[in-house]
Amino acid sequence: MLKKTDLRVIRTRKMIKESFIDLIQEKGYESITIRDIADHALINRATFYLHYVDKQDLVDKLIDEVFSELTDIINPCVYIQKREVKISQFQSMIEAIFTNIFHHAKFYQIMLSEKGVHGFNLRMQGVLQEKFRKEFSTIDLQEEKLSTPPELLIHFISSALIGTVEWWVNNDLVYSPKHMAVQIVNLITIGPLQSSGFKVQA
After folding, report:
1. What total of structural domains would you count in the chain?
2. Does 31 lie in the same domain as 131?
3. Does residue 201 belong to any structural domain of this protein?
4. Residues 44-70, buried b or exposed e (16+ Cβ, 10 A)?
5. Which pLDDT does position 23 carry in this prediction?
6. By residue range, what is the domain housing residue 82?
7. 20, 170, 175: which is closest to 99 by C-alpha?
8. Which pLDDT belongs to residue 42?
9. N or C end of the chain, less CB within 10 A?
10. What is the pLDDT of residue 98?
């Protein structure tokens, strides 16, 4: 009996979230009402309130779920060992990030559009930065031992990643996650100019 109830709850929440995403794409986040969500999900308002406090609670939980999946993939300890970067492991991690985003492509496309939640990209940036800070602290990246301050490095990587993701999803995922991973690794490890074929002179 408990399993049946659990499955029913899971199905209901899935319908609510899918309806919510569809409605954001159709009407824009700010215009959506609880009645809109309930009607689209074929439930009543009382059922909605059994699962979520309000629209803000729904969007917060939805974003947290997606970001939790994404940040679980980020693990610099796998590819940074004894202050050396293992390129193959680094590329595998970046590919896993883009594969995850590919599976949630509709969510990111809508949230990063004008109809999405205001400040979504800043929220994503903050989540990524916090994850990188936590991970870098475990591998002892101290400022006095680095040519670039860790905080500047964290901001650069997170900003570059979000900007690239935004371009990718808004251009219909034109390249595969693997191709994106190769390009990102080259841009980060070689630099944008040299990875594009320019010769850099001192």
Report:
1. 2
2. no
3. no
4. eeeebeeebeebeebbeebbeebbeeb
5. 97
6. 55-195
7. 175
8. 96
9. C
10. 97
